[in-house]
Write a structure and sequence with these properties.
- By secondary structure, this protein is mainly α.
- It has two domains: about 1-35; about 35-100.
- About 80% of the residues lie in helices and about 0% in strands.
- The protein has helices spanning about 5-15, 20-30, 35-70, 75-100.
- Helix 1 (about 5-15) crosses helix 2 (about 20-30) and helix 3 (about 35-70) packs antiparallel against helix 4 (about 75-100).
- The protein is rod-shaped and about 75 Å long.
- The two termini are about 25 Å apart.
- About 0% of the residues are buried.
């Protein structure tokens, strides 16, 4: 790589707030380039969805336990849990689409 090419890559890295090696790797494998702030926002969103899914998994287990013990579980609770799961899956899909090459 010539000095001029390096300076171009280095300038791009500085704008994005990432290292030169990260810029080179991501441009080589076709990963969309993100600023450090954008990357952190995507990571934050994926972690938030992960926590939400863990919480909903607990809710589903409680509903299953109640149903297996012949307890009455309001249909609204089941529907709300399933709707929340669908929304969380959409959030995960949206965040994943942001980082697809």
């Amino acid at each position: 790589m010539s000095r001029k090419e390096f300076e171009i890559v280095e300038g791009r890295s500085n704008v994005l707030g990432v290292s030169v090696p990260r810029t080179l790797i991501e441009s080589t494998i076709g990963v969309p380039t993100f600023t450090k702030t954008e990357r952190e926002a995507v990571i934050h969103e994926l972690l938030a969805v992960r926590r939400l899914l863990a919480s909903m998994s607990n809710n589903v287990n409680q509903i299953a336990k109640a149903l297996n013990s012949d307890a009455v579980v309001p249909g609204g609770q089941i529907a709300a849990t399933l709707a929340a799961a669908a929304r969380a899956a959409e959030r995960a899909d949206a965040a994943a689409r942001r980082i697809e090459p």
